[in-house]
Specification:
CATH topology: Rossmann fold
Order of helices and strands: EHEHHHEHEHHHEH
CATH class: Alpha Beta
Largest sheet: 5 strands, parallel
Strand order of the largest sheet: 2-3-1-4-5
Number of domains: 1
Number of strands: 5
Helix content: 55-70%
Low-confidence stretches: none
CATH architecture: 3-Layer(aba) Sandwich
Oligomer: single chain
Strand content: 5-15%
Mean pLDDT: 93
Distance between the termini: 11 Å
Radius of gyration: 17 Å
CATH superfamily: P-loop containing nucleotide triphosphate hydrolases
Length: 186
């Protein structure tokens, strides 16, 4: 099963990605982890990515897509994978589509976790208080939500034409949300 997981900051993507990964026996692929892995391995792609990261710039889509192409061909991805944090934009989604076509692969679904923004702000502020995360302040959270709305939310419309989008209510207990996700995927 090959999946994309989308949702605004604080909706619980990381937690749910772990549960879905374990249920289906697939790999959880985070763009950040892939980037850090390439940098740590000091690969040619990692060195290029590091130059952008060190300059405080976003790693260009073409570089991210090349990393994804290499990663998706690893043996552990054969049974399936869950992409978390990629794609984030329409150009990345188009690049991913071309990449998957070239690899002879298709996405099974795009799972979109949804939640009320005010509820997410409360959830993240509480997380910041209990975990000591300094970036979980109402202003920073609202800024991240706006970036999600502008850059990533349009992916729902992009994928809607392919009938891949499965919307799941992201409010409830962890187990309730996991069961909702599994229900739309089965």
């Amino acid at each position: 099963m090959k999946l994309v997981l989308l949702g605004p900051p604080g909706v619980g993507k990381g937690t749910q990605a772990t549960n879905v990964k374990e249920h289906f026996g697939i790999v959880h692929l985070s763009t950040g982890d892939i980037l850090r892995g390439e940098v740590k391995a000091n690969s040619e792609l990692g060195q290029k990515a590091k130059s952008f990261m060190d300059a405080g710039k976003l790693v260009p889509d073409e570089l991210l897509l090349k990393m994804m192409e290499i990663r998706l061909q690893q043996p552990d991805c054969e049974p399936g994978y869950l992409l978390d944090g990629f794609p984030r934009t329409i150009p990345q989604a188009e690049g991913l589509d071309n990449l998957l076509t070239g690899l002879g692969q298709n996405l099974a679904a795009v799972v979109s976790l949804t939640a009320d923004e005010d509820e997410l702000v409360k959830r993240l502020v509480l997380r910041g208080e209990t975990s000591g995360r300094s970036d979980d302040t109402p202003k920073v959270i609202r800024d991240r939500q706006e970036v999600y709305r502008q850059q990533t939310e349009p992916l729902l419309e992009y994928y809607a034409s392919t009938d891949l989008v499965k919307e799941v209510d992201g409010i409830g207990t962890i187990e309730e949300i996991t069961q909702r996700i599994l229900a739309v995927l089965n």
